[in-house]
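TICKET: design request
STATUS: open
ATTACHED STRUCTURE:
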């Protein structure tokens, strides 16, 4: 009976404690010119350890910018730039964050996102390790690897 309780804890609770939530920007519509990102963001709670997942195609990209550049749709001073169609951006510290599409006039037509990240930053947390992973596929693989490792530890401990 004790083995079953430990197994269930490791299997279901431990991964939840170690990893934040992935927020798919724009939901099923993804990062596109047709998105209403203010409405989408207002329905979310963003926390340190979570990730923003941008899914997009075409000429789109993602720039992390300052508040002033966000408000003025200035894409020339990007703090970070992402390309490639899918990006998982870790939310590693609390505060306001601003994102715009760098394609000409896309920000002006609403392809921009402002969020407030809640929580505190602790460099020793597992989410700090997760933030080193470049995309959603490796995050899933990392989660599965962690679960297998924890499962093996339970067997060693119980054996």
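STATUS: resolved
RESOLUTION: sequence designed for all positions
ATTACHED SEQUENCE:
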């Amino acid at each position: 009976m004790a083995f079953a309780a430990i197994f269930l804890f490791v299997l279901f609770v431990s991964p939840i404690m170690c990893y934040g939530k992935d927020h798919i920007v724009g939901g099923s519509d993804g990062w596109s010119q047709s998105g209403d990102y203010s409405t989408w963001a207002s329905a979310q709670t963003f926390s340190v350890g979570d990730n923003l997942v941008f899914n997009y195609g075409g000429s789109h990209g993602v720039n992390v910018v300052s508040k002033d550049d966000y408000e003025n749709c200035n894409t020339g001073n990007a703090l970070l730039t992402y390309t490639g169609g899918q990006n998982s951006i870790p939310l590693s510290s609390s505060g306001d964050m601003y994102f715009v599409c760098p394609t000409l006039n896309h920000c002006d037509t609403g392809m921009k996102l402002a969020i407030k990240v809640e929580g505190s930053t602790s460099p020793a947390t597992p989410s700090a390790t997760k933030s080193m992973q470049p995309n959603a596929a490796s995050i899933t693989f990392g989660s599965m690897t962690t679960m297998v490792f924890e499962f093996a530890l339970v067997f060693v401990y119980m054996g």
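CLOSING REMARK: The first strand starts at residue 22 and ends at 24. The CA atoms of residues 88 and 137 lie 9 Å apart.
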